[in-house]
């Protein structure tokens, strides 16, 4: 991640949380604490945040320029670097479910973003709310790409619409692919209600829901529930998944695909 990108994401996180410790920022931005401390010092000198003991806090009122609301959740540029080799394997397996000529939906996320590499030689009709994925596919493939209307949320790299009547309702797909911060007995989890609003609209337009979740996401809870397990058709995870959880998902009539992590480079 470039320094400029990291600085922008750091400011976005402060807008969302008001305060963040060096340790928290290090985790969210996938950078060393030494790097985060240097970033805080530099941004404080430019009066873009306030440096405090152990972290940083947002500037309030007239002290800072107005910034638009942010979504809760991990920054895309940081998330895509976490377990990237495993996510790539999950994405490769996911694309095997696609047939040329199909209409599919790809929800924005770090795991589904990895599908770009394997979609390069395919010929599909793709609706995605991922601005970064759409940009890549337009440049590297012959797939037909459709973006919904709405506002671009830079931190997650996705487009969300607050309107019920948008282009999503005119799109019908055979499959929808999505990642998740967690999946367990409560269902498929999500980090922000605005994400849920859009994802539920997308899900209504697809015949099948295919979830990509590496083994660290299994059994993990988040702030909100997107949908129950009864609405999930396929779960693609890795071979380090807890066998008890795999059995639980299979008993819920979910097809579980286990990808061998030893294939990762």
TrEMBL record:
Lineage: superkingdom: Bacteria
InterPro entries hit by this protein: Carb_Metab_HTH_regulators (IPR050313), DeoR-like_C (IPR014036), DeoR_HTH (IPR001034), NagB/RpiA_transferase-like (IPR037171), Tscrpt_reg_HTH_DeoR_CS (IPR018356), WH-like_DNA-bd_sf (IPR036388), WH_DNA-bd_sf (IPR036390)
Coiled-coil residue spans: none
Keywords: DNA-binding, Transcription, Transcription regulation
Pfam families in the record: DeoRC (PF00455), HTH_DeoR (PF08220)
Record keyword DNA-binding present: yes
A GO term for molecular function: DNA binding
Entries under SMART domains matching the protein: DeoRC, HTH_DEOR
Annotated ranges, domain HTH deoR-type: 3-58
Keyword Magnesium recorded: no
Protein name listed in UniProt: DeoR/GlpR family DNA-binding transcription regulator
Organism: Gilvimarinus gilvus
């Amino acid at each position: 991640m470039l320094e400029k990108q990291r600085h922008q994401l750091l400011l976005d996180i402060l807008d969302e949380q008001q305060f963040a410790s060096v340790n928290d920022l290090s985790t969210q931005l996938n950078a060393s604490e030494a790097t985060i401390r240097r970033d805080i010092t530099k941004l404080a000198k430019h009066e873009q945040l306030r440096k405090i003991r152990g972290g940083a806090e947002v500037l309030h009122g007239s002290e800072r320029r107005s910034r638009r609301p942010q979504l809760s959740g991990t920054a895309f540029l940081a998330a895509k670097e976490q377990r990237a080799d495993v996510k790539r394997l999950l994405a490769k397996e996911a694309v095997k479910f696609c047939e040329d000529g199909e209409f599919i939906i790809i929800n924005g996320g770090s795991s589904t973003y990895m599908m770009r590499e394997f979609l390069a030689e395919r010929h599909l009709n793709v609706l995605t709310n991922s601005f970064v994925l759409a940009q890549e596919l337009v440049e590297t493939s012959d797939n037909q790409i459709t973006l919904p209307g709405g506002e671009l949320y830079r931190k997650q790299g996705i487009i969300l619409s607050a309107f019920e009547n948008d282009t999503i309702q005119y799109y019908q797909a055979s499959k929808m692919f999505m990642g998740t911060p967690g999946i367990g007995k409560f269902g498929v989890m999500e980090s922000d209600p605005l994400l849920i609003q859009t994802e539920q609209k997308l899900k209504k337009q697809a015949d099948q829901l295919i979830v990509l979740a590496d083994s660290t996401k299994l059994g993990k809870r988040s702030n909100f529930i997107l949908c129950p397990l009864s609405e999930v058709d396929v779960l693609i995870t890795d071979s380090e998944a807890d066998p008890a959880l795999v059995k639980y998902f299979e008993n819920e009539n979910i097809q579980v695909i286990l990808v061998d992590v030893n294939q990762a480079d």
